[in-house]
Write a structure and sequence with these properties.
heterodimer, A: 255 residues, mainly alpha, 12 helices, 0% strand, B: 253 residues, Rossmann fold, 6-stranded mixed sheet, 10 strands, 37% helix, binds adenosine-5'-diphosphate, binds magnesium ion
Chain lengths: 255, 253
């Protein structure tokens, strides 16, 4: 038992390396989690941008938070997919019958989700800089942005874990992500909610993505964040805890 | 006591209403090959999963390498390795990367060297740096077994190691299994193929309707068979005939 605990971190490292290889060897994953969000960004800025009234002169600044959330939502679909494939292939059984901490197999996927989404977020921010994104945020604000994005990623990752662990087909494992990828479109990510019609506006203003987007946008612009950051944190942590409990329940049942 | 690698007593397991194991008893001697024979759905994989700590039994006891599987699962896992019914290899990694990964998870000193040695031994050197998704079924199974040998576990479980393989690949796996036991490893294998048990095993146990209905060496199993048949032709009875004879007797009762 002692040796099992002692090696937990190095075992997690092995699991992380394995899944990162899966990602870098899958052109499909790379295109979906980075190229697609970048295409969205180009499309909105250079095609629709002229027609969208946001009250800011720099639409890239306005758009970036929503694009990052879309990238993360696309990314976690692959977390679910990788988890599903592992459950199917029997490699989990191999890991579980080895003298390593049982949870490593699952937590390896969670860690991979954090690391890979961090990479795609960084790439997208670099492209945004090239497109004219500028921020006056200080170190602390950037850290706060990183923290919110990490919590958002974790919340979605545990939802992905439920889907990946309980799906019966590859399609099922990824399908849960589509509504989540769609959420930013009905939020303040691309256009201010004031421009939306009644019920849509009510939904947009009260769904989690809007508060996350608003909090990140304010932090990056160096403006006071107000209540949004607390609402955003409450959503992320709440969803994360509920999803975690359910995912663990499914996990215990399946293994 | 010390001579037994595995001891199973009164093992029972149900999945909801399905009573799969109804009191299974057997022992496996160290450094021997033990075959658990049974038709599809007999409960072979269930037994393997309990012995490899993947599943908990409802009642009865099982010890592996003298450790109780329910009470000391970590110690059991130190002593065993499992090649499950479905190839447990990473398709996206290369053969070499798969072996290195397992060697690192077993915290061996020189994972690269361990991988090189096993690639050599299993004739996978040429394919070592290709992704496993390009391997044939036989190569995949060989890699699967090679991964189970990383770290030289004392007891190896092979759940239907040749199901779905072509005859040539099957012979390769048989050769590997024989070598393992010759080197002192205890091999527990399950199979639906009577000739496989006949070829490989020192001892054969037949699992049927939740119980072990026969457990003997091949020679002794053959004695169970009514000698009347011998006059027909000179051929010795095959295990298949023995199997059918035993089941036939049970069902008449
Ligand atoms: N997780 C499970 N839930 C319900 N039934 C199961 C489960 N696993 C196996 N079974 C059933 O238990 C029986 C024995 O299965 P198994 O041990 O896999 O047999 P074998 O390996 O000999 O083919 C089968 O009828 C199978 O359908
Ligand atoms: Mg089976």
């Amino acid at each position: 038992m002692e040796t099992v605990k002692k090696h937990f971190l190095s075992d997690m490292g092995v699991m992380l390396e394995r899944s990162m290889r899966h990602i870098f060897r899958s052109l499909d994953t790379i295109i979906t989690v980075t190229i697609m969000p970048i295409m969205f960004m180009l499309l909105f800025v250079y095609v629709f941008g002229g027609a969208i009234q946001t009250g800011t002169d720099n639409y890239v600044n306005y758009l970036l938070p929503g694009i990052l959330l879309i990238a993360i939502a696309s990314g976690i679909a692959y977390t679910s997919y990788r988890l599903f494939m592992d459950m199917q292939s029997g490699i989990f059984e191999r890991f579980h019958s080895m003298p390593i901490a049982r949870s490593t197999a699952l937590w390896g996927h969670v860690l991979t989700s954090l690391v890979s989404n961090a990479i795609s977020v960084l790439v997208i921010i670099l492209v945004a800089l090239l497109m004219g994104f500028r921020s006056s945020a200080g170190v602390l604000s950037w850290l706060a942005v990183a923290g919110i994005l990490a919590l958002f990623t974790l919340a979605l990752t545990w939802i992905a874990a439920i889907a990946g662990l309980s799906a019966t087909s590859v399609d099922g494992a990824g399908a849960f992500a589509y509504p989540i990828i769609f959420l930013p479109f009905i939020s303040s990510a691309f256009v201010p909610t004031e421009s939306m019609s009644g019920p849509v506006r009510a939904f947009a203003e009260n769904q989690p993505v809007t508060s996350v987007v608003e909090a990140i946008r304010a932090l990056l612009a160096g403006q006071p964040v107000g209540n949004d950051i607390w609402i955003a944190l409450a959503w992320c942590i709440g969803i994360m805890l509920v999803a975690y409990v359910f995912a663990m329940r499914v996990y215990k049942k399946r293994v | 006591m010390q001579n037994q690698a595995i001891q199973v007593k009164g093992l029972q397991k149900s999945y909801k209403k399905l009573h799969v194991l109804k009191g299974v008893d057997f022992e496996v001697e160290r450094s021997s090959i033990f075959a658990l024979l049974g038709s599809n759905g007999a409960g072979k994989t269930t037994v393997v999963k309990i012995l490899t700590t993947l599943l908990k039994q409802d009642s009865g006891t099982a010890t592996v390498n003298n450790f109780d599987v329910a009470a000391k699962p970590d110690e059991v896992r130190q002593s065993i390795s499992l090649t499950g019914q479905f190839a447990a290899v990473d398709e996206i990694l290369t053969g070499r990367e798969n072996l290195i990964m397992i060697a690192r998870l077993r915290h061996l000193k020189d994972p690269r060297q361990v991988a090189d040695d096993l690639l050599n031994r299993f004739g996978l050197v040429d394919a070592a740096d290709r992704r496993v998704s390009t391997y044939s079924g036989g190569m995949r199974r060989r890699l699967d077994i090679a991964m189970s040998l990383v770290g030289k576990p004392k007891i190896i479980f092979l759940d239907e190691p040749t199901t779905g393989l072509d005859p040539e690949a099957r012979l390769e796996v048989w050769k590997t299994v024989k070598e393992l036991a010759a080197n002192g490893t205890t091999v527990f294998l399950t199979t639906q193929y009577l000739d496989e048990a006949e070829q490989l095993a020192d001892r054969i146990a037949i699992l049927h309707e939740g119980r072990i209905i026969a457990n003997d060496t091949l020679a002794d199993l053959k004695k169970l068979f009514p000698p009347a048949k011998v006059e027909y032709i000179e051929k010795k009875p095959s295990l298949e005939e023995i199997f059918l004879a035993i089941i036939g007797k049970k069902e008449k009762k």
